[in-house]
């Protein structure tokens, strides 16, 4: 896939690019240790839903069928993926960008995006709102898309 035709970026409840750093280097030491402790002897992490208690996951995804479908689609991932140093994303700093904050955990990233002059929208929701409230999320994305290209 070529990135030559990328016309902009919308980050949704996500970290911003951190060239030269791994994901593990951008998170608190306690969380990095917790993630490393979850890896099995072969360096594989459990699927993301298993990083949380079943009660916490049920709070985010109260619909049992939706939760089961989500859990079934989440693979195990290698710990090395989180330790890999990010390279520079071509032209990302020069393309239009916006940020959609879904949860309080990403307030700092939304603030960084705002400081960069990007349009930012905040929904009082949670990290998996794409699954539980897709219409509101899509509406916010469309609004941000319009603001990016003004």
Pick out its properties.
single chain, 150 residues, 2 domains, alpha/beta
What does this structure look like?
There is one protein chain. The relative contact order is 0.20. The protein contains seven helices and five strands; from the N terminus they run E-H-E-H-H-E-H-E-H-E-H-H. The chain folds into two domains: 1-17 and 88-150, no CATH class; 18-87, no CATH class. With 150 residues, it is α/β, with parallel strands linked by helices. The mean pLDDT is 92. A three-stranded parallel beta sheet has the order 1-4-5, with helices on both faces. Strand 4, helix 5 (107-115) and strand 5 (120-122) form a beta-alpha-beta unit.
- Mean pLDDT figure: 92
Number of domains: 2
The parts where pLDDT drops under 50 for at least 5 residues are none
- Major sheet: 3 strands, parallel
Secondary-structure content class = alpha/beta
Short recap of the structure:
This protein is an alpha/beta fold and 150 residues long. The chain has helices spanning 29-38, 54-60, 64-73, 79-83, 107-115, 129-132, 134-148; strands at 9-12, 44-45, 77-78, 97-101, 120-122. The strands form two sheets. A three-stranded parallel sheet has the order 1-4-5, with helices on both faces. Strands 2-3 form a two-stranded antiparallel ribbon.
Outline the fold blueprint.
Blueprint: E1 9-12, H1 29-38, E2 44-45, H2 54-60, H3 64-73, E3 77-78, H4 79-83, E4 97-101, H5 107-115, E5 120-122, H6 129-132, H7 134-148
């Amino acid at each position: 896939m070529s990135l030559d035709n990328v016309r902009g970026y919308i980050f949704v409840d996500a970290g911003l690019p951190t060239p030269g750093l791994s994901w593990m280097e951008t998170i608190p030491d306690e969380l990095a240790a917790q993630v490393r402790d979850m890896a099995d002897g072969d360096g594989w992490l459990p699927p993301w839903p298993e990083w949380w208690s079943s009660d916490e996951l049920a709070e985010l995804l109260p619909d049992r069928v939706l939760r089961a479908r989500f859990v079934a689609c989440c693979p195990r991932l290698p710990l090395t993926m989180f330790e890999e140093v990010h390279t520079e994303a071509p032209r990302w700093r020069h393309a239009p960008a916006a940020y959609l904050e879904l949860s309080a955990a990403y307030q700092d990233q939304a603030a960084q995006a705002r400081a960069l002059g990007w349009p930012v929208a905040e929904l009082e929701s949670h990290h998996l709102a794409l699954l539980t409230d897709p219409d509101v999320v899509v509406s916010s994305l469309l609004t941000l898309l319009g603001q990016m290209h003004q």
